[in-house]
What we know:
The structure holds 2 protein chains of 2 kinds.
Chain A (H helix, E strand, L loop, with lengths): L4 E4 L2 E2 L2 E2 L2 H16 L3 E7 L3 H8 L5 E6 L8 H15 L3 E5 L2 H13 L4 E11 L2 E8 L4 E7 L5 E5 L15 E4 L12 E7 L12 E5 L9 H11 L2 E4 L1 H5 L20 E5 L5 H4 L7 E6 L12 E4 L2 H16 L1
Chain B lengths: L1 E5 L2 E3 L21 E3 L1 H17 L2 E7 L5 H10 L3 E5 L9 H15 L3 E5 L10 H9 L3 E11 L2 E7 L4 E8 L2 E5 L11 H7 L4 E4 L1 H4 L10 E7 L8 E2 L4 H14 L5
Parallel strand pairs in B: 1-4, 1-6, 4-5, 5-11, 6-10, 7-10
Antiparallel strand pairs in B: 2-3, 7-8, 8-9
The structure holds flavin-adenine dinucleotide and adenosine monophosphate (AMP).
The site of adenosine monophosphate has 23 residues of chain B, from helix 1, strand 4, helix 3, strand 6 and helix 4.
Amino acid sequence: MANGILVFIEHADGKINRASYEAVRAAQLIGAQTGQEVSAIIFGEGIGDLVAEVAAKKIKTVYTVENKWLRSYTADGYTHALRQIIEQLQPALVLMTHTYEVRDFAPKLAASLKRALLGDNISYKIEEGNLIFARQIFQGKLAADVVPVGDAPHFVSFQIGSFRGDECETGQAEVKALTVNLDADVIRQHPEERFKEARAAVDLTQASLIVSVGRGIKEQKNIEIVKKLADALGAELSASRPICDNEWLPMDRQIGSSGQTVAPKLYLAVGISGAIQHLVGMKGSRTIVAINKDPEAPIFEIADYGIVGDLFEIVPALTAEAEKLKQ
Amino acid sequence: MKIIVCLKQVPKNDSILRINEQGNWIQDRDLTYEINESDAYGLEAALQLKEKHGGEVIALSLGPPRVQTVIKEALARGADRGLHLEDTVFDGLDAFGIASVIAAAAKAEGFDLLLTGLQSDDYGFAQTGVIAAELLGLPHATIVMDVESKEGTIRVKRELESGFFQWVSMPAPAVLTIQSGINTLRYATLKGIMAAKKKEIKKLDAAAVGVDQASLAPKMAFRRVYLPQKSKQTQFIEGTPAEIASKLMDKLKNEARVF
Ligand SMILES: Cc1cc2nc3c(=O)[nH]c(=O)nc-3n(C[C@H](O)[C@H](O)[C@H](O)COP(=O)(O)OP(=O)(O)OC[C@H]3O[C@@H](n4cnc5c(N)ncnc54)[C@H](O)[C@@H]3O)c2cc1C
Ligand SMILES: Nc1ncnc2c1ncn2[C@@H]1O[C@H](COP(=O)(O)O)[C@@H](O)[C@H]1O
């Protein structure tokens, strides 16, 4: 019988990915409510310190695999290893945080066992003994409750930020070493060193006022309208990803999961819908203002002040007001 | 190089979405549709690889008759032919089911590269390509920002978190999921639109694809669709643009104290 919750722990450069503790926290909460034991799996090469760090959480067993083929991440290596572990341990639920790494291998892992991955959830609830997960659809414009269909193991990942990793209960886990069979043949991806592109020319993390522009601006020449507002406020100008993809503003002005993370005193979002990959880069801002013509735009879920209307009317009026204020 | 590129047709980005009567999906009547954003970049990547290495680009879409529009758009931009996977048993499939059908059709066709977008704008599973790779027994890479091909080896630049990137090589055939923004999209020319009229779109139903019915059995289900809950109490500011501007500035100054 499948039983227990197994949490996948991710690491890079000798450090546990903090986001993995969010999945540990989710597992502790679900485990307490459903009476299931929580265990964790971490693998790599020379990871003793990392194992000790995870074992200090309230977890029954931390399973560890030391194997040279798991020294650096590959989708093939991780999938093969985890599948063998899951076959040995027979967990009912495998929990992960929906990082880029998990996105890369977890659908393959679940599919190799003919299961679905319920990916990128933001919460869970228990109804009549059944676990139900909630996730965003249509880029956050709607939400959906989803359930696995069929036998365990079930695979579930949670969106980053859905649980508080720093609220993990502490404890003393037992540590058990497991082995897996891997060799060069099964690992077809050959990763090179990770690198960063040339350093960003602008450091938006230090800005105290930011005006940010999204696809609602429609055309490159219209960026000027928003730039004028930024200038009038003495704010930095930033953007959502599509604006930078189109090269309407340079890459180093992109805010979000693949851009910069900022927490200014004021973040004024103009024509930005509020997809999660954008929100993660700015939701720590002290005051958030959103201008959007769509009253249901997800950006309003986190805005302190909302203006529903046409940015082409609102922004020039704001610029005029800001200039008045300056004098 | 033979490249199959998956194109999903999704409701236009600024669609007003209404929940259906059963409360388990949206009302899909009266919507207008477009090519899923990252898929458009996948198509462009395929066309650029073909220009460099020669070969063929096949545009694949699964869905009801209306999805022929995205196939035709791809043909007008330069794809050589289309594959339209259409069958009522394909309605409402989950990612595993969609990937099973795509994998079966792609296998029968044969290819060097199978490209998908990294994520659909409606379901947002971010899984279809990766599952298809597993079902086909092929290597894959996700969130791809650049593709090189040399003597049977595919080398791709992957986007990682916190501004990191990584090049990864693997043998072809392979499956790649393409990130938006990796290239500059081209638009269909009048000449392209005329040429597209002569290009073939092959229609395949479940039997023709030869997909195993068992793989279409749902492995997950949407129970309920609803409007998201708000986490903050938003103050909405109303009035004429000038009124809004002066009220907002006043609040930012005296209430939020940002200036
Ligand atoms: C792996 C991954 C990483 C990503 N990384 C990032 C990232 O780092 N940063 C990022 O931003 N995105 C990122 N994205 C993309 C993200 O999912 C969204 O696609 C993107 O943020 C949408 O940008 P947007 O809000 O400008 O555009 P849209 O979603 O198109 O929104 C435009 C908004 O403008 C409004 N609008 C239109 N006209 C007007 C008008 N006249 N007046 C007022 N409002 C108007 C519309 O109502 C709409 O809400 C990533 C996606 C993935 C899958
Ligand atoms: N019905 C479909 N037809 C063609 N391609 C699809 C379909 N569904 C998904 N895909 C492809 O798979 C990618 C990822 O989709 P998803 O797993 O739903 O996020 C999309 O960007 C498409 O390239």
